[in-house]
Design brief:
By secondary structure, this protein is of the alpha/beta class. It has a single domain, classed as Rossmann fold. Helix content is 22%, strand content 27%. The protein is built from three helices and seven strands; from the N terminus they run βαβαββαβββ. A seven-stranded mixed sheet has the order 1-7-6-2-5-4-3. Strand 6 and strand 7 (129-135) form a beta hairpin. The model has no long low-confidence stretch (mean pLDDT 94). Bound molecules: adenosine-5'-triphosphate (ATP) and magnesium ion (MG).
Length: 139
Amino acid sequence: MKEVTASPGETEALAARLAVLLAAGDVIAVSGELGAGKTTFVRGAARELGVTEPVSSPTFTIGHRYEAPVPVAHLDLYRIAGLDPEEWGDLEPYFDGTIAFVEWPEHGGDWLPQARAVVTLEHVDESHRSVRIDSDLGL
Ligand SMILES: Nc1ncnc2c1ncn2[C@@H]1O[C@H](COP(=O)(O)OP(=O)(O)OP(=O)(O)O)[C@@H](O)[C@H]1O
Ligand SMILES: [Mg+2]
């Protein structure tokens, strides 16, 4: 599916529609250029999944794990240039029993678990983004 959203709130609401279809072990790749709305999308999904903490970009760490009925992981691989086995070992716990959202999944290479859904965001103009969701979840 592909929709154009007109505000961050609409992007969050669309993410919530995906979130209700997800289960523990699912990995969601969230792609798009800087400022496309990746973190906004993850925030909307995390809220729907019961995360009450503020969800922001994991700037000083690669990832963040939020407690929720099913724990939610949020990774940003922007600064990763190809993972070596040791780095992958550090990341693996984020995927253990969680619903995991990964920004810049391209940087994870072959190490990332297969994505259940691939979200691609693009700028349309200042307030509009096109949001494409490829998955077998019926959205
Ligand atoms: N329709 C929209 N959907 C999402 N964000 C929007 C929209 N319109 C404007 N914005 C703005 O675009 C910015 C998106 O920032 P966000 O941090 O979500 O992007 P990002 O893709 O995670 O960036 P980065 O690559 O730096 O991590 C926010 O400032 C948000 O308010
Ligand atoms: Mg971000």
